Amino acid sequence: MPLDAVMPMVPPLPQGTPASETAPGQAPDLGANPTAKPRDGIDPNRFGGKPSDEAYGAFQRGLYKTAYNLAVPRAEAGDAAAQTLVAEILSRGLGVARNDGAAARWYEAAAEQGVPEAQFQYALLLLDGKYVNRDDKAASALMQAAAEAGNRLAQFNYAQMLIQREPGSKGLEKAVPYFERAAATGLADAQYAMSQVYANGVGGRLRDDRRARLLLVQAARQNYDTAQFDLALWMVGGRGGERDLKSAFGWMKLAAEGGNVAAQNRLAKFYMGGIGVDPDPILAGAWYINARRAGLTDPEMDDFLRGLTDVEMKQALERGNRIR
Questions:
Q1: Burial class (CB in 10 A: 0-12, 13-18, 19+), 61
Q2: Which end is more exposed in the chain, N or C (fewer Cβ atoms within 10 Å of the end residue's Cβ)?
């Protein structure tokens, strides 16, 4: 798996209602139009060293070869932070030839010394089994250790592992605290997971639509397309907050433009029915054509296409061809 990987949601949490929590006296923001927020940059604490470290400083400035040369002697001398930094550089091929096998060995060495980032990365390698022998039990132990140490990606992934290990309500109850801790750090995957927990009142939590909706907003703002899709539908229905058709259209369009095929089909229906936007049969046809090319079929939209004139169908096809 790549650096900073998250395992897919397995099994998907039940689809339901969403909401959120705000500071006392502060009105929850449940409807602002989307502004995608990129995930945060590299944290020096990931490497188990101090931000003033010379090798890390070179890494931060993009001087990867220099950082590598500075870190290798210290890594060979047993410095765990340097070992993690060398592994990071090798695993991504930054300034040097990519070498996943060597990166795995350095991650292992740093993981043995308790560096959470290295524990997380080596756990992924153990699960993958490509560069080291697969060992699910050791991977689980390392993932848990990294999660307990505060690595948010480990928290999310360990929650997923708990659900895989023990499907059903018991596994979910064990997983929720880890999802929650990761969500509190701003991890979009975990925010979406917690939105579904509150939407359905599972994992030992009571159903709370407003809390779930705010979590959806938080994930959607980070360009999490499934959250954008769900949020748009809940805004149309007024679930967990005010009904807001204009914002619903904005979120659905953002998800559709990001390649979410279900959102493309639903956006076509928004244009067809004038939901949050002026009706536009050409754009409705264009977005559905694009979704259908990706393998989604919708009898209602097929009927809609058959009702277009030849000229409208030609225009819809032309517009659909321009959608990327």
A1: exposed
A2: C
